[in-house]
Amino acid sequence: MPARYLISKELAKIFSVFSHPDRVRIVEELRDGERDVNTLQAMLGVSHSRTSQNLAILRMHRIVTERRDGRYVYYRLLQPELAAWIFEGIRFIEKDAANAEVTRDAIEKVKQLWGAEAVR
Q1: Among 16, 62, 66, 102, whose Cα sits 20 to 30 Å from the Cα of 119?
Q2: Strand partners, 69
Q3: pTM
Q4: Burial of 20 (0-12, 13-18, 19+ CB in 10 A)
């Protein structure tokens, strides 16, 4: 198997893990250290089972690890720099958001201009 194909396949697996917004948010919430499931659930504002299911996927892909302390389970990022990498992704959506705002402003301006001409 060519190296490029193998690495592309592995990267695609990681990208697929972040195809759900809850998992992106979990990684961001773990940016500053470990948290227990109940805290993550409250931060996300979703059900306990949904939080646990997403944590299981992140654990399966070795994004997070767990530590048990009595009845409590705490999660942390195996590679904390992953949170910074995700944060950098905001730059990609900022461009689209900026373009959308420019487009919306242009549409409103043109509607005003063209509407005024239609009245004449």
Answers
A1: 102
A2: 72
A3: 0.78
A4: middle
